[in-house]
Design brief:
Strand order of the largest sheet: 2-1-3-4
Number of strands: 4
Radius of gyration: 19 Å
Number of helices: 11
Number of domains: 1
Structural class: alpha/beta
C-alpha cells in the first residue's frame, strides 16, 4: 500500500512538472540516445550507469514510452520530459530508456522519423533466462496467473491476434503484447534487424547482460565511448538495479523446449552482430 501511494505521488509530481515544462516545447531538446530494450535484460542498470555520467542530463522519467504507448500525444508532450536547450552544453547529452521500444512493431519507424540521429542501445540476455524472468515479473505485478507452460502455449495465438490489430490501427495499444510476450521477446535478431533497416548499424550498440553484470565498469566505458562522452569517468553505482527475486522452478522439459526454440534465432543474432554470445 505504501509503495502504491508513493508511486501515485511520484506520477502526480512528474505529471505536474511535465505540464509546466510543455508550455515552451521548442526550448527543449530531443534525446541523443535511447535504451530500447530488451526488457529484463539489464536496461535499468545500464540506464543508471549512463545517467551517472556528468555529461548526461537526464529526463524527468526513465521510461517515457513515447514511441510505443504515447505516440498520439505528439512531440510537444515528448519534449516536455527533457532539459531546456540553455541547460545543455555542447558536450552534454540526454536520453531515456523504454524497453518496450525494441519489441513494438512501430517503434523503429517512429524513432527514425522523430530522432533520426539518436544512438540506440540494446541490452540482450540469454533468452531462456529472460523469458523466465519476464514471466515472474508479471506474476509479481499481478498481471499473470497462469503457469509458465500455459502462458507459453497461449502466446502464439495471442501475438497473431494482437499483431494484426497493431498493424491495422497504429493508435492501438496492447496490454497482452506488452506483458505476455515471454518467448517472442527473446527472438532478438528479428527485432534488431527491424531497426537496422531504418538506421545504420553504427548507431546501434549491443550489450550482453552477462557482460554488464560481470564487468559493469567495462560495460559502462563501452557505453560512454559509443555515446561520445568521456570514457575515463568511473561510475560509483555498479550494483544491478531491479534484480528480481524468485526461484527458477522451470521444468527441465520446458527449459529444453525453449533452448530448442531459440537455437536458430540465437545463431541469426550471432551472425547479425558478428560475435557468439555462447547461449
Amino acid at each position: 500500500m505504501v509503495d502504491q501511494l508513493a508511486t501515485k505521488a511520484y506520477d502526480s509530481s512528474v505529471g505536474f512538472l511535465r505540464s509546466v515544462r510543455s508550455l515552451l516545447p521548442s526550448r527543449r531538446v530531443l534525446p541523443d540516445y535511447l535504451i530500447i530494450g530488451a526488457q529484463k535484460a539489464g536496461t535499468t542498470s545500464f540506464h543508471a550507469l549512463i545517467a551517472e555520467h556528468p555529461q548526461v542530463r537526464g529526463p524527468i522519467r526513465k521510461e517515457i514510452h513515447y514511441f510505443d504507448l504515447n505516440h498520439t500525444k505528439g512531440d510537444r508532450w515528448y519534449r516536455s520530459f527533457f532539459p531546456r536547450t540553455d541547460a545543455m552544453s555542447p558536450a552534454s547529452i540526454t536520453g531515456e530508456a523504454s524497453p518496450y521500444y525494441l519489441f513494438h512493431p512501430h517503434c523503429a519507424h517512429r524513432i527514425n522519423k522523430t530522432v533520426p540521429d539518436a544512438k540506440l542501445i540494446v541490452l540482450v540476455r540469454d533468452p531462456v533466462d529472460r523469458a523466465v524472468s519476464h514471466y515472474h515479473h508479471e506474476v509479481r505485478l499481478g498481471y499473470e496467473s497462469r503457469s509458465l507452460e500455459r502462458a507459453l502455449a497461449d502466446e502464439d495465438a495471442m501475438l497473431e491476434r494482437e499483431m494484426a490489430r497493431l498493424g491495422t490501427d497504429p493508435r492501438y495499444t496492447s496490454f497482452e503484447h506488452q506483458h505476455h510476450s515471454y518467448r517472442a521477446r527473446g527472438r532478438y535478431a528479428e527485432q534488431i534487424d527491424r531497426f537496422c533497416r531504418t538506421c545504420s548499424k553504427d548507431r546501434i550498440l549491443i550489450v550482453d547482460s552477462a557482460e554488464l553484470y560481470g564487468n559493469p565498469a567495462a560495460a559502462a566505458q563501452r557505453g560512454y565511448t559509443f555515446l561520445g562522452i568521456d570514457p575515463a569517468f568511473e561510475p560509483a553505482r555498479l550494483k544491478p538495479k531491479n534484480k528480481g527475486k524468485y526461484q527458477d522452478r522451470i521444468s527441465p522439459k520446458t527449459r529444453h523446449e525453449l533452448e530448442d526454440h531459440y537455437r536458430p534465432h540465437n545463431e541469426r543474432l550471432y551472425e547479425l552482430i558478428g560475435r557468439d554470445l555462447g547461449w
